[in-house]
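Do me a favour: review this protein, sequence plus structure tokens, and tell me how the chain folds. Record follows.
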Amino acid sequence: MKQMSLFDQSDRPVQPSGARVYTVSQVTSRIKTWLDNDRVLQDLWLEGEVSNWRSAPSGHIYFTLKDAAASLRCVMWRSTAQQLAYLPEGDGVAVLAHGKISVYELSGQYQLYVDDLQPAGLGALYVEFERLKARLAQEGLFDRPKRPLPPFPRCIGVVTSPSGAVWRDIQNVLRRRYPLAEVILAPTLVQGEEAPSQIVAALRAVSQVPGVDVIILARGGGSIEDLWAFNDERVARALAAAPVPVVCGVGHETDVTIADYVADLRAPTPSAAAELVVPDRRELARQVADYRARLVAGAQETVTRRRRQLLSELRALRRLSPQSWIDRYRQRVDELSHAAQRASAYRLALNREQLRGLRLRLSALDPKATLQRGYAIVRRAADQRVVNRVGQVAPGDHLVIHVSDGTFKSMVEEGTP
């Protein structure tokens, strides 16, 4: 251990007579610094008998640890006392205390500041626990990356005793929360000398089952001796070597084992471990209903927004569409067509009237009409020329006489002119 001097030369006041004088605070502070820098005294397990046990109104606890030859004042802060699973019932109890040695400067007393307290009969197990914990921590076994649990496990391996209530509790929790998952039990002893090797074998066996994607290592509560199988180095290394995430649910909430440090996730109880590895189907149903409502609302909002956009685009298209021009020109065509029809009808009626007038005029000039009034048309039979003068015929000429209802022939007699 490194030797320390209580005083630096610069801290030594010198009287005119040459005698060195120090203040009480200087001495006490130096002693405190000396103790606080001693590694052994800052991480110390002490075994002794409790005396003068006193709980202050503040919640802090003051007592003395003693053996046959010496005694040591101890203090435990309220925050520490509230977290400990064990507190002695009073004076005369043998305990194993962990803490650090320091000086209470106001009274100049050195004392043990306790942060853990256990029954003295289990002291060897706690010392071994701390030794193994420190070695594995230094090795980095606790610091390896923790693997996330699968959100929807298909197959769950359970390493525990098949005869205890823990197995039934885990089954009940899994069946109630997520009955879709397949559950495979890897039976093992969870207490006794043969338990560590069986736990290691069960972990390896269930890890080799196809489809297993998470493992629960579980045991009910008990003393440190009952849970000692889970402080075995072989179990710790088997947990670290597991190919899938492992949830450790060993003991009660205050029980902590080496397996808890190595596992990917620690659960306070076996039932809590089962709850951690699977989702709650009721919560999933609520989430699905919520997602459905949000999806429907989002779809409706999207449809409404797109419909508004479509209507806006349609209005813009209508404004820019040639259909309006086509409709207007179509109406103009209808108007022009109607006007053309009226003009054509008027022109036809006018032509008809003109035709009728011409027809009347032609009728008045029609030779047949003249013949109806008693006139006749005389033609020479030889050349069919109309005879309209006497000098055009001679006696003996044959004539063709046209009257209103036919023709007849005649001959010019001699002396007739």
Q: What stands out?
A: The longest helix spans residues 323-365. Residues 371-411 form one domain. The radius of gyration is 63 Å.
